[in-house]
Each structure stands twice: as C-alpha cells, then as structure tokens.
Design a protein that fits this description.
- It is built from six helices and no strands.
- The chain has about 120 residues and is mainly α.
- The longest helix has 17 residues.
- The protein is elongated.
- The chain starts with 6 loop residues before the first helix and ends in a 6-residue tail after the last helix.
Length: about 120
Amino acid sequence: MRVGTNPATELLGEHGYRLLAAETATAAGHALRRDGRISRARRSTERAAALRAGCQGARTPLLDLDGLGTVLTPRERQVAISPPTCPAASSSPGSASPAPSTAISSTSTRSSLSPAGPS
C-alpha cells in the first residue's frame, strides 16, 4: 500500500477497480482539501489522476466534484433543471376537457371480426 493514501482507494486499485479507486481518491482529496489538509489532498488528487488515466476517458460525477456542471451536456443540464411541462400537471382539477368519445359501432366491429373468405 502507498504511504499516505486512502486504503480503500489502494485496495480497489489492487483488485482492478480503477474507476472506483479514482472516485474514492477524488472524494478523499476533496474532503482533505475542505479540512485544510492540503498536502494529503494533493497526494489523493494526484493518485486520482493516475488512476483516471487508466480508465479510457470514463467520466462520472464523483470524478468531477469541483465542477459537477461539466458532467452534463448543455441540453442535459437544461432538461434536469427545467420545470415539468406536462399539460395535465399545469391545469387545475376539473378544468380539463373530457377525452373525446371513442365509441365503436357494432357493425364495424362485426365486419372486422368476421372470418375472411367465402361463407
């Protein structure tokens, strides 16, 4: 195990779970920086970068704790923060018009259910 690194990060990395290890190192670096432990935070951030390099460009929200907005495309961000646009949700109860009638005549039903060919 590397000296001064997160044991969970190292254990995950040793077992081949590089992406999860990169996420734990990123989260640890963020927490350490927040707590003022800059030297350890830098080591965790550097370890996260090394692990991330072996993940073929994978991106997850945990790998981008400092800039969560960059994980989503502009359209995904727009959809995620926009209010619902369902017409039924915006109308008050009882004000919606009734659904159009869908009555089927018995003649059309009988003709479409009759066997094909001469009878």
